[in-house]
């Protein structure tokens, strides 16, 4: 066993000991439900109205400064991060002792009021704390000081293989997920407003087509038949056009059993639409309008691609 493995095992064993102490004290470290009233960003953005008012937040502990009778820690929720101040005299000696069994990565709920510290940081003054999830494995260590990050989780191989950890310790990655969801919603809204109908076509197909690519194959036991994961949506969408559905589209997963690089993935999402009685210029105009509309919605009309600066607000040529 390597030194790193020994160290990890020691950390896990130590955290399991803390977990057992919580259980022995009658604390359920994995309750089924908790109802926060605010996100961290709500408090930070609306502090003027929330100052000294009751708030209830929940999130993962991302930094922890345990002291004698009072401590500070930061929790991270779905919208950001906020500091919490906890004092033994406010939460009681027993609850404060339970708090001292917590580590970075644990989830907690905090009921208290919004205030600003002497250093000017908007925070939550805890009146009570609820343990929501005791974490056994440690997070990758990421240190911050005065806005600068140290020991960041930056290894791309590890980040892509452990996307959940990447989201935890590199919150900016979350913006990519949010932006992607907005793009998909914008594409749907644009096509729906033009009278297109979103449909679902078969993923498993007896004959693959619509593109020149090698498929993934599987076997349907009940039919004793070889089937293929689709490489494109095209053929089934065209059948709908034949059937009299004049405007159809699908945002779907396609699969191609070929090489991988930064521009190609065996599983990817593709939008295909088909439009009866329209020519290629109609399609070109639709795509231009749709891209501009979606880019405007996510505030991305100016795009940097490599060394190129692209202005999506201008007419496409």
TrEMBL record:
Q: Name one Pfam family in it.
A: tRNA-synt_2
Bilayer-spanning residue ranges: none
Aminoacyl-transfer RNA synthetases class-II family profile domain location is 180-317
EC annotation? 6.1.1.6
For this chain, the family text in UniProt reads: Belongs to the class-II aminoacyl-tRNA synthetase family.
Keywords (A to Z) from UniProt: Aminoacyl-tRNA synthetase, ATP-binding, Ligase, Metal-binding, Nucleotide-binding, Protein biosynthesis
GO molecular function terms attached to this record? ATP binding; lysine-tRNA ligase activity; metal ion binding; tRNA binding
Q: What is this protein called?
A: lysine--tRNA ligase
């Amino acid at each position: 066993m390597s030194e790193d493995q020994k160290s990890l095992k020691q950390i896990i064993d130590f955290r399991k000991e803390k977990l057992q102490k919580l259980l022995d004290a009658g604390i359920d470290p994995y309750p089924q439900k908790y109802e926060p009233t605010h996100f961290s960003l709500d408090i930070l953005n609306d502090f003027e109205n929330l100052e000294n008012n009751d708030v209830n937040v929940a999130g993962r502990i991302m930094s922890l400064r345990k002291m004698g009778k009072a401590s500070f820690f930061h929790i991270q929720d779905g919208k950001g991060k906020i500091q919490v101040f906890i004092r033994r005299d406010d939460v009681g000696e027993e609850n404060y002792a339970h708090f001292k069994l917590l580590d970075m990565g644990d989830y907690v709920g905090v009921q208290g009021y919004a205030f600003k510290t002497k250093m000017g940081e908007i925070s939550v003054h805890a009146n009570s704390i609820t343990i929501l999830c005791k974490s056994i494995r440690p997070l990758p260590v990421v240190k911050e000081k005065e806005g600068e990050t140290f020991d960041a989780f930056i290894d791309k191989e590890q980040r892509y293989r452990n996307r959940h950890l990447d989201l935890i310790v590199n919150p900016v990655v979350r913006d990519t997920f949010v932006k992607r969801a907005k793009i998909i919603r914008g594409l749907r809204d644009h096509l729906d407003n033009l009278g297109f109908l979103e449909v679902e076509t078969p993923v498993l197909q007896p004959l693959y087509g619509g593109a020149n690519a090698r498929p993934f194959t599987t076997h349907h036991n009940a039919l004793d038949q070889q089937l293929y994961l689709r490489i494109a949506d095209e053929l089934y969408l065209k059948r709908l056009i034949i059937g009299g559905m004049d405007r159809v589209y699908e945002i779907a997963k396609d699969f191609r059993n070929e090489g991988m690089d930064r521009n190609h993935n065996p599983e990817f999402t593709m939008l295909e639409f088909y439009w009866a009685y329209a020519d290629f210029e109609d399609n070109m105009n639709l795509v231009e309008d749709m891209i501009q509309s979606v880019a405007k919605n996510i505030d991305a009309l100016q795009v940097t691609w490599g060394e190129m600066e692209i202005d999506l607000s201008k007419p496409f040529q």
